[in-house]
Each structure stands twice: as C-alpha cells, then as structure tokens.
Amino acid sequence: MAEEIVNRVANSDLKTINLEDFYPKGERTVIDIKNWLFQELILKETDFRAHVKNHNWSQYQNHYVALTCSSDAIIPSWAFMLIATYASPFAKKIVIGNLNDLETSIFQEIIANLNTEEFKDKPVIIKGCAHKPIPETAYIQLIEKLQPVVKTIMFGEACSTVPLFKRKK
Length: 169
Prior knowledge:
Helix content is 27%, strand content 20%. Strands 1-5-6-7 form a four-stranded mixed sheet, covered by helices on one side. It has a three-stranded parallel sheet with strand order 2-3-4, with helices on both faces. By secondary structure, it is an alpha/beta fold. The protein has two domains: 15-24 and 114-166, no CATH class; 28-91, no CATH class.
C-alpha cells in the first residue's frame, strides 16, 4: 500500500515573491543627447532648444525613458528638465541615467507601493533567477519593505533556499 504524497510547501503559509511578476510592460529607451551638442561637447542653448523642439516625441508613447549624454560634456540640469517637458506627455517614466538606473527607479516605485499585508507574520521566499532585467537594488529594497512585517525571509526556490532573516521572538 503506497503512502499518499503530500505537498508540504503548497500546504504551508510560505509566500513566494518573484519580482519578475511585477515587471511592467513597456519599451525601455535610452535617449543620448550627445548628437544634439555642438561637436558632441558644447551645449549651445539656441541650437539645443531647436533640436528638442523638432524631435518626434510621440515615438516614445508608453516608453520608459532614460536620458543620458555619452560624451564628456557638462550638461546643465535645465537641459534634461527641458527634454522632460517634451517627453513626459508620452513617456511612462523618465530618468537621467542608463537602463539600469531606469529599472532601479521603476522597481523603487513598485516596491514602495507593494502591499505587505498578505506577508504579515509569514515565511517568505524571494525568488531569484529572473529572465527579465531586475536590478540588484530591487532585492535590497524588497528586503527593507518586508523585514518589519514577515516572520522569515529566504532567497531561492522552495526546494533550495538560503535563509536571510528570521524575526526574533
């Protein structure tokens, strides 16, 4: 007589969080403004304003946008602010930096808005091995968000976890 196999993980209070599940849809775009500069180094205000004004901003509809300058030019803050005034009616989010900075900013917002009620006093596993570009900082932000409310935090898969935190009794 065979004994029934019981899935103890499925029957436990264990909660799994996969940050990949929160990854928002939308194209990620980097706008490099170096070509809008005189000799890719000097921002001439009149020429720069003309470039910004004549650029097709509608192409960034529902995009997540990172603004950058890949040359060694010194860019005044107002230049990126000016770009944002044109891009913001179309883009979902705009940051200054690279794609990693953009993803970090996106996840910072997602984690800040995460409702932790379902994780209260529960053991939690944070899944790793994402197929999407989840920034390392997002995992740290998630720890900070969960630690005050959860019983334990582990990293990995239910079959093989690394313990990270256990609330003192």
